[in-house]
Amino acid sequence: MHEYEAPLKPELAEIIKVKSETPSIKTFDVRFVDKKLQKQFAFLPGKFVMVSVFGYGEMPISISSSPFEKEFIQLTVNAVGNISNAMHRLKKGDLIGLRGPFGRGYLLQRFRRKNIVFFSGGCGLASIRSAVLAALAKKDMFGDIFLFHGCKSSKELLFGKEIANWERRNSLNACVSVDIPEKGWKGHTGFVTDLIEKKPLPVENTVVLMCGPPVMVKIAIQKFKDLGFKPEQIYASLERLMHCGVGKCGHCNIGREYVCVHGPVFSGSQIEKMHLEEG
Ligand SMILES: Cc1cc2nc3c(=O)[nH]c(=O)nc-3n(C[C@H](O)[C@H](O)[C@H](O)COP(=O)(O)OP(=O)(O)OC[C@H]3O[C@@H](n4cnc5c(N)ncnc54)[C@H](O)[C@@H]3O)c2cc1C
Ligand code: FES
């Protein structure tokens, strides 16, 4: 499926595996029913698909798997409302509809030889994971790779084992923080944005790629700027309510920007001109 071919027509995909990640988040491995489509499907980390849960509706979901994985794609879904809860009730063998991939991703190919700081909160790690997997698969192309991730509690930690493996195998520097102190938790405590002042980071030749709740994005951008990062060194994926995903319905705009086509990943310079709500 190409993003410009019949962009409003969902294609059938089969759920081939469901994994519970946290009490509210599941990862679905899905494969297009049309084998040719599955083979052709290509995307950049940070792009999203419109997922139809039949009988409930459609929602935008980032692709959380590596762009180099050709057998299936992964969708990591937080159950927050009607459609996402309906998706959580689906099982292996059930069918969903997919449109996309849509939007602008993290454009890792522009960051050759640069250090990369991945920065995420909560389910924002779903979109960041795809970029981390892509960067680690081409590790020689980049400088040092860092991951800062925050979640409410250790129970809510998404991809915890995977983060530990990335750290061990690929010399990625990871820092995970839980919001509230917890017995037995060996990582950091406090908001993930507090780590920005605490952890020494190279500013020169470094880019920050982030995804998370709007309040985290807003605070993190300011803190990175206070450290000396220029807005053009920072990229953040923004969330908006979406209907069409292709710039037609006008549901996702922030000022002049349509998050579905001009984003969801925007540079810090673009974000400075946008009015971001907190939430
Ligand atoms: C580009 C993009 C990528 C996304 N990627 C993922 C992902 O990988 N995994 C994931 O779990 N979710 C992702 N989301 C969010 C996801 O689309 C929403 O959580 C989903 O639409 C909720 O649908 P629902 O019917 O279950 O909940 P609803 O009943 O529609 O909403 C439940 C609550 O969430 C709020 N809400 C719903 N959608 C949004 C939104 N887009 N922005 C802010 N608040 C919202 C509603 O106002 C309401 O308070 C992404 C959103 C965008 C725009
Ligand atoms: S979701 Fe319709 S214009 Fe962006």
Descriptive notes:
It is a single chain. The chain has 279 residues and is of the alpha/beta class. It has eight helices and 15 strands. It has two domains: 11-102, Beta Barrel (Elongation Factor Tu (Ef-tu), domain 3); 108-272, 3-Layer(aba) Sandwich (Rossmann fold). FE2/S2 (inorganic) cluster (FES) binds at residues 242-245, 247-252, 258, 260.
Tell me the strand percentage band: 25-35%
> Can you summarize the main beta sheet?
7 strands, mixed
CATH superfamily membership of the largest domain: Nucleotide-binding domain of ferredoxin-NADP reductase (FNR) module
> Which strand order do you get reading across the main beta sheet?
10-9-8-7-11-12-15
CATH topology of the largest domain: Rossmann fold
By DSSP (H or I, 4+ residues per run), the number of helices equals 8
Small molecules bound in the structure, each named once: flavin-adenine dinucleotide, FE2/S2 (inorganic) cluster
Q: Which architecture of the largest domain would the CATH scheme give at its second level? A: 3-Layer(aba) Sandwich
Q: Could you estimate the helical fraction of the residues in percent?
A: 10-25%
Task: Report the uncertain regions.
Answer: none
Give Rg in angstroms. 18 Å
Distance from first to last alpha carbon: 34 Å
SSE succession? EEHEEEHEEHEHEEHEHEEEHEH
Integer tally of domains: 2
Mean pLDDT figure: 94
Number of strands: 15
Structural class based on helices, strands and sheet pairing: alpha/beta
